[in-house]
Amino acid sequence: MGRVSIPLSGTPIDLANGDYRASIASIGASLRSLTYAGRDLVVPFDADELRPAFRGATLVPWPNRIVDGRYSFDGVEQQAPLTEPERGNALHGLAAWLDYEVRDRDDDFVELAATIQAQQGYPHRLDVTVLFRLGDDGLYSAVTARNTGEDAAPFGTAPHPYLVAGDGRVDDWTLTLPADRVLAVTPDRLAPIGLADVDGLVEGTQRAGAFDFRTPRRIDDVFIDHAFTGLARDADGVASVLLTAHDGHGVTMRWDAACPWVQVHTADQPDPERSRLGLAVEPMTCPPDAFNSGIDLIVLQPGESTTAGWTIAAVG
Predict the structure, then answer these.
(1) Closest CA relative to residue 308, chosen from 62, 7, 30, 31
(2) Is residue 5 domain-resident?
(3) I need a labelling partner for 316 at 20 to 30 A (CA). Which of 12, 74, 117, 247 fits?
């Protein structure tokens, strides 16, 4: 009997609805690609490619960073693995490299499931399900976590797509980000310092107002790797980010009040060929280092569950 070859990114799941196509990878419940009428809406990666960093991954049980990987919960000090060793932080949770199982699927949706086992630095057990559903209005994703342990557990979540507006790179695209506040960070480790108004924060050589995209404007050479809050929302409580190319085509991402924060990153890399290919937009239930600050941190009691969701859709 021949050996079944599984791609490096895990079990591939292809979804279709109308002009939308999506490919999901089981490892990390990752969005591998998303297109509309053949046009990329996210930076893709190949099925048999080791997923580049956290591209498209589902982030649980925390998004972003725990500084030094250390925190205290219920009076007990914890040390999580330092998965961002160059900055000495615990980055993007514990499930990005778990192989999720397919629980249910059809042509236009899939539900994946995995268990985060109690472990050093996070002595809690969570059952996590991730839903991807392609509709006429884009790709809806939702993360549900349930505490199956005996003690309360800290929790946060976010996705990690890199949005693509069209031709060119991040510098060429116009961003609309209706956020009043931005979290200032240290330049070396991106550790949170404190909130600032988007029109007042000055970091490094960047000018005042560099982080203010409440009025649409080109990103140009602005470096962003920051969490934003104070989000403007519509009558239904939905916040959104819009990214457009020069021809008016683009992509939008929207989410409800479950995520009061959004991390935006211009994806700068040392290699010019790989740098600023897409704009990371990560709606988050809590800000960076929430396991220490406690800001918007979800605490799941035994048996409790929580859900957060977001949609990526084509524009133009």
Answers:
(1) 62
(2) no
(3) 12
Give the burial string for 39-74 (b: 16+ CB within 10 Å, else e).
Answer: bbbbbbbebeeebeebbbbbbbbbbbbbbbbbbebe
CATH code, 233? 2.70.98.10
pLDDT tens, per residue, the chain with 316 residues: 556 689 999 999 999 999 999 999 999 999 999 999 999 999 999 999 999 999 999 999 999 999 999 999 999 999 999 999 999 999 999 999 999 999 999 999 999 999 999 999 999 999 999 999 999 999 999 999 999 999 999 999 999 999 999 999 999 999 999 999 999 999 999 999 999 999 998 887 778 899 999 999 999 999 999 999 999 999 999 999 999 999 999 999 999 999 999 999 999 999 988 999 999 999 999 999 999 999 999 999 999 999 999 999 999 9
What is the Rg, in whole angstroms, of the alpha carbon atoms belonging to the chain?
Answer: 19
Supply the range of the domain harboring residue 228: 12-315
C-alpha closest to that of 18 among 3, 35, 33, 31: 35
Phi, psi of 24 (to 5 degrees): -110, 140
Position 4 in a domain: no
> Per the domain annotation, does 204 fall within a domain?
yes
CB-based contacts of 246, cutoff 8 Å, min separation 6: 166, 167, 168, 172
Residue 114 CA to residue 144 CA, distance in Å, equals 11
Helices and strands counted in the chain (H then E): 1, 27
CA pair distance 179, 229, nearest whole angstrom:
6
Q: Is the pTM here over 0.90, yes or no?
A: yes
Number of domains in the chain: 1
What is the C-alpha to C-alpha distance for residues 4 and 35, in angstroms, rounded to an integer?
Answer: 28
Please check whether residue 259 lies inside any domain of the structure: yes
